[in-house]
Amino acid sequence: MRFFYFYKMKIEDLYQLYSIHGLVDTDTRNIRQNTIFFALKGENFNGNKFAEEAIDNGASYAVVDEEAYNTSEKTILVDNVLETLQKLANYHRNQLGLPIIALTGSNGKTTTKELINAVLSTKYKTTATVGNLNNHIGVPLTLLSMNRDTEIGIVEMGANHHKEIAFLSEIAGPDYGYITNFGSAHLEGFGSLEGVVKAKSELYEYLRKHNKKVIVNPNDAKQIEHTKGMDSVWFSNDIKYLDADPLVRFSYQEKIITSNLIGVYNFANISAAITIGNYFKVTPEQIKEAIENYIPSNNRSQVIKTERNTIILDAYNANPTSMKAALESFEALKSAHKTIIIGDMFELGEYSSKEHQKIADIVQEFNFNSVFLVGENFYKTTTEFKKFKNFTELAEYLKFNPINKSTILVKGSRGMALERVVEFC
């Protein structure tokens, strides 16, 4: 058997190598010079096979977990690459010793994370989760992207099964935690709304066990119930909602602030960011600047004006709770002509038919001028609205029946990719 110096290396020794380079990559298509490549595995790929390629492309070392690929002095053989990545991230987090803010929730966690980062970065050097890389791989990579210059870390945590938030909390070791809300998301994995509450509350359990601090929305009864007796920071009383037509407008310490976010449901996300900013001594002037300069992207709460219409694009994701909130907020707009284009909600399992029919029934109660339901699940609902089995059918219809002079809400799960509708409106 070939035996190299880096055989079954201890995490402390691997950390010494990481400390020298400070870079970690998992994709050979984006290898940086002098990085450490972690050869992760998935259902359809084996990163071990690309270890040599990673080194050829500039990686200083490649971490592998199959003996056959431990072929040089630049490969490091471990028992499990993913577990090693997670242990290294936790070890690094503990070495840095900086405050970590963790957040999860059914809806709005990425927007809330971005808002918190925008507010805190006006005063501190922050490092936050990029996009929604919030799983068992994304969280470790976020932690390993922090360095000695980082003053506050912000970690988004996602889950679709029980014990995932508990596991991610052990890796990230948060000092502060916030749960945006408890909604009907990922019911296929959680089983019920009660299952969602239990799973998300695993963050509370970690914070309680380690005597850490929790951020609480006083308007959320479930948050209040599940944080009793904890060291809590409640939303500031100085934040007053004004309106959302369509952009959320509010006052904070007598300053009128107009955000670039649509929907009253985003007011809680903004309030969380302000509360955390205030706790970390960010000034009201800095907070106002941060909120007003934050512009949503990636099909989240975007307002797009075309030659013919105004589009409210909220097509990054959808579940029954967020869909209902979006429809209610849209109903409250003062626009003369309103159109909705909503697509299927995924990962609902046995609840899918029931939840899609509920949404169709809610739409029936509102007085929208035009309604388009898109996807196989909405197509099966009992309703007189226009229904399309897929996006192709919708696009073909809109080519010959264009929408004009309307405010259009576009919302659906990521797999529906409803942002494509913009070119037809």
TrEMBL record:
Binding site for ATP: G105, S106, N107, G108, K109, T110, T111
Molecular-function GO term, any one: ATP binding
The UniProt record lists the keyword Metal-binding: no
Keywords: ATP-binding, Cell cycle, Cell division, Cell shape, Cell wall biogenesis/degradation, Cytoplasm, Ligase, Nucleotide-binding, Peptidoglycan synthesis
Annotated InterPro entries: Mur-like_cat_sf (IPR036565), Mur_ligase_C (IPR004101), Mur_ligase_C_dom_sf (IPR036615), Mur_ligase_cen (IPR013221), Mur_ligase_N (IPR000713), MurCDEF_CellWall_CoF430Synth (IPR051046), MurE/MurF_N (IPR035911), UDP-N-AcMur_synth (IPR005863)
Localization of this protein: Cytoplasm
Domain Mur ligase central as annotated: residue spans: 104-276
Biological processes per GO annotation: cell division; cell wall organization; peptidoglycan biosynthetic process; regulation of cell shape
Sequence ranges assigned to domain Mur ligase C-terminal in this UniProt record: 300-413
Domain Mur ligase N-terminal catalytic: 24-92
Gene3D superfamilies the record matches: Mur ligase, C-terminal domain, Mur-like, catalytic domain, MurE/MurF, N-terminal domain
Enzymatic class: ligase
Pathway: Cell wall biogenesis; peptidoglycan biosynthesis
Main location: cytoplasm
Catalysis performed (reactions): D-alanyl-D-alanine + UDP-N-acetyl-alpha-D-muramoyl-L-alanyl-gamma-D-glutamyl-meso-2,6-diaminopimelate + ATP = UDP-N-acetyl-alpha-D-muramoyl-L-alanyl-gamma-D-glutamyl-meso-2,6-diaminopimeloyl-D-alanyl-D-alanine + ADP + phosphate + H(+)
EC number: 6.3.2.10
GO cellular component: cytoplasm
Family the entry assigns: Belongs to the MurCDEF family. MurF subfamily.
Function, in words: Involved in cell wall formation. Catalyzes the final step in the synthesis of UDP-N-acetylmuramoyl-pentapeptide, the precursor of murein.
Protein name: UDP-N-acetylmuramoyl-tripeptide--D-alanyl-D-alanine ligase
